[in-house]
Every structure is written in structure tokens, then in C-alpha cells.
Amino acid sequence: MALTKHSRITLNDGHKIPVVGLGTYAPDEVPKSQAEEAVKVALEVGYQHIDSAFIYGNEVEVGRAINAKITDGTVKREDVFYTSKLWSTYHTPELVHSCLVKSLKNLQLDYVDLYLIHIPIEFKPGEDLPPTDESGKEIYHNTDIRDTWKAMEDCKEAGLVKSIGVSNFNHKQLELILNMPGLRYKPVCNQVECHLFLNQSKLLEFCKSHDIILEAYGVLGSTRDVNWYETMYYFQVETFTHSL
């Protein structure tokens, strides 16, 4: 089947996610206004999936762009699939709802389409992002990720999110959720870095076996840490395309 701007994949809860989306993460030195303009242009040219997160610090601008394009008739709210993420200082169950509400207020939206646990690591609750001690080391916390997931399920049942999932989880961390007693909703997706230097083939097979979508970010590679991949290997474009 040929891919178009309307192509979507059905998640395990019945909702559908566009196959291509615009991620809005940017380093701190990039003005937040650029996220607003990027989202406006993306929606104008046909993007239907916009991805951001509480920790990105740009949901006010992203929400402003989405609402502007709804107001001028470019899109309808139901045409836009919006993903946000729970930050790690809010893993304590009673804080999950408050993080989501802050995102919704910043976005000026009534719901998000997909809400993810951003990383499977919890930091000490508080306003510092992330919290650090006197020596500059990050301060961690120890909430059971399964309790965090129960609070995510509550957010779904409250109608604040349509689908819930995770990000940056390995298969053992996913199993903690999948095997938990009283599971109401399993993750619809696991969003991870995935590209030619990090193909995630084993994790992909695990996710497929549990009807969980493996959603890729950094698909053209990541430049944040040059030690993350092996620089001695490279791909010759002609050779690679001939093998497809």
C-alpha cells in the first residue's frame, strides 16, 4: 500500500496514529518561537501528527500553532494527532494527573491523542528539571513504574488522553507493565531512537509480538552524542538503495 499524508496505523486500543509526525524537540539555544512556526508550516503542508513533551518547554508555542491552524480552517482538531509525554519528576501516581493538566493548559487543548511515559527513570519530585544535589548529580526517586502506569490508565479513563504508551523502554521494562496484575490497558506504542546505526530489531520483534507499535524518533540519526554510534562504519547510499 502506498503511503500518503493520510496513512495511519491502528493501535491496539483501536485509535489510529499517522505514520509520519513532526517532533518538536530542540536544544535550549533554539528560540521557542521556531517550534511555533515549524508546527504551523507542518500543518499547512499536510502533517497530521505533532509530537512534543512537557520537558521540551515549548507546549505553549506548539499549542498556539495548532489552535491558530484550527481557527483559520487549515485543520480540524480531530485531524491533528498530538503526542505529549509525562516527565520523570511526575512519576509518583498522585502527580501524573497534574503533569498532564499542566500540558493541556499550556496547549489550550481539551485532550491529547497519545500520552507517553517519557523515560523509565524517575527523578525526585519537584520543580527542578532535573533535580540535582550539591555536587551536581541528578537525584533519583523509586516509584514503581507499574504504579505510574496505573495513574496513566486513570488519565485515559478520565477522557484526558485517548491512548497511552511509553518511550525509551527496553523489553524488560515493558514486561513489568504487561505482566502487572489488573492491567487495564497495555501500552499502544514504545517510542525509541531508531535508525540505520540503531535498528532496534530485537525490540521491534518483541513489540510486534505484543501488538505494540515501535515508534521511531531520530530516524535520520542522532547528533547529540557522537559516542552513541560506531563512526568507523558508514552506508553507501547506492549499495543500500539497491538492496531495498
Automatic annotation (TrEMBL):
Chain ranges of the NADP-dependent oxidoreductase domain: 20-233
Residues annotated for substrate binding in this entry: H118
Similarity comment: family membership: Belongs to the aldo/keto reductase family.
InterPro entries named in the record: AKR, Aldo/ket_reductase_CS, NAD(P)_OxRdtase_dom_sf, NADP_OxRdtase_dom
A Gene Ontology molecular function term of the record: oxidoreductase activity
Protein's name according to its UniProt entry: NADP-dependent oxidoreductase domain-containing protein
Superkingdom of the source species: Eukaryota
Site location (Lowers pKa of active site Tyr): K85
Active-site residues per Swiss-Prot or TrEMBL entry: Y56 (proton donor)
